[in-house]
Amino acid sequence: MIVYSGLKNDFLAAVEADSIAAEIEQNIYAKMHRSTGKSEYRAWENSLEYMYKVLNDRAIPENSGIAIEYNIPQTSKRVDFIISGYDEGKDPNIIIIELKQWDEVETLAGQDALVRTFTGGGMRTVVHPSYQAWSYAAMIADYNLNVQMGNITLHPCVYMHNYRKSDPEKLEQDIYREYTDDAPIFARGEVSKLRKFITDFIRVGDNSDLLYEIDNGKIKPSKSLQDSIKSMVEGNREFIMLDDQKVVYEDIILTSRRCMKDHQKRTVIVKGGPGTGKSVVAINLLAKLTNEGLFVQYTSKNSAPRNVYAKKLTGHKKSSINNMFRGSGSYYEVESGMIDVLICDEAHRLNEKSGLFGNLGENQVKEIINASLCSVFFIDESQRVTLSDIGTVAEIRKWADDLGSEVYETELVSQFRCDGSDGYLAWLDDVLEIRETANNDLRDIDYDIRIVDTPEEVRDIIVERNKVKNRSRILAGYCWAWLKEGQNDTSVHDIRIGNFEMSWNLGNTSTFAIDEDSVNEVGCIHTSQGLEFDYVGVIIGDDMRYEDGHIVTDFTKRAKTDQSLKGIKGMYKADPKRALKEADEIIKNTYRTLMTRGMKGCYVYCTDRKLADHLRECLKR
Length: 621
Fold this sequence. Notes:
Number of helices: 20
Number of strands: 24
Radius of gyration: 26 Å
Helix content: 25-40%
């Protein structure tokens, strides 16, 4: 959906009349039923004055198409500025311009296509603007049938009109080259360069015909995208399905086909504990259904599994397949049934609100079901690890019923982690007093679980194990603050236990689970949940201890920088009993999740000596 469209002459006249921002505001309210904030309004006024300067040149055809705020279908992402027309050979071209008001930017070494800048009231990590422009163009090219059939070529670029380039320019250094080559950056003082970029592709006006083609294009994955995702999954042994994984997969394929045939909403709930292969099935569904020509996306609240699975599929290559992986907060503005199939992994981590400040949308479960014709939720209710996690089977059923979506429930049972034994998981639940089970011993279970005496021993074992395949990691409960000044520096040690010192996982990478050097940092629940390793070392902090014959938890021992229990103090004042129950569930679930990340073994250090002794006794049974 295009918010504002017209010819170049229309745009220039609206800017001269100081009406362009008001026209956009009115159109957004009329088309999207959304009010515009003052900062967004001022941004239009500012940036579009600069675009007036760029377009006020006779070399750019007067009847070129102009679009502002093009909402990419099935997403909440909007392209800032589009120019359409033909080149000298009468070939159709679209210029996509990402407008930025930034004046200062920090680069981030070691993390693909990310930078830091002041936005949303503070310094934040965001995608490199060239990556953003390129990914928007790739999304349109991959899914817009009119673009594909009409051979319309998209040319993304960035205009940072407040930013002065340095020499050499840090945003154009080698680590960003693959994105800046495809989406060049034009900065303050480079109006003539941006004009040349435009006129290289647009010499004849199209009277906005190409904008109409884009705005009315049917959504269908391109053949190249279908072939790419298919070959990536088929060539990766990590995504081979076994036993009931294949059964559940085939059932969901049939359900999705029924949805496409009769246009009836359906929701599939797939329950499964750690290591049952929920993500393996999810990735295979993404590939298969995309290959059948459906518009499919994989979504999760936590970015770690999205980033890791995308990287495992694509390696280090730039790929538009990344557009298939979206955050669970991406669907609050998507119209009903606009996406064929939405696959939600780690559904237990879904939140109510979305956005940077948690003030957007209504409920992520509702939004996912609403946005899709077929919604698939993979869930393990015992992995709820923050107060804001709302994903439950009951919550999914409630919204499915409210939205008229038929519900199908199935389960993955076979265990492919922890030596393929449900016994270890049941033993862990029993020992942590999460639930009583009949498994109070580990007899006949070939899983290397040890309680060690020092954190140094955990580190030594994991470093040695990691030498084989880079598949071993140290993890810990959130009892140590993540020091702001050292978030990207391994030498800054957040975690200190006696003489033992290590850094939390670095903030300048989103793929801790597979990075070559991250065995030197300690991962938290947010960088490991939904992922698996061969071996894990788990440090249990002061938030869980053993006293009076029971495992007890203490939310006051969590670090102040921990957001998992945000609001617990207020809840404790209002309702102490409820607060203690909620905190106990989250803390125990956190350690249960950490201690089930290892496929072959888990080595545990406890800061509470009595807890360590108790766990050893439990192992001896």
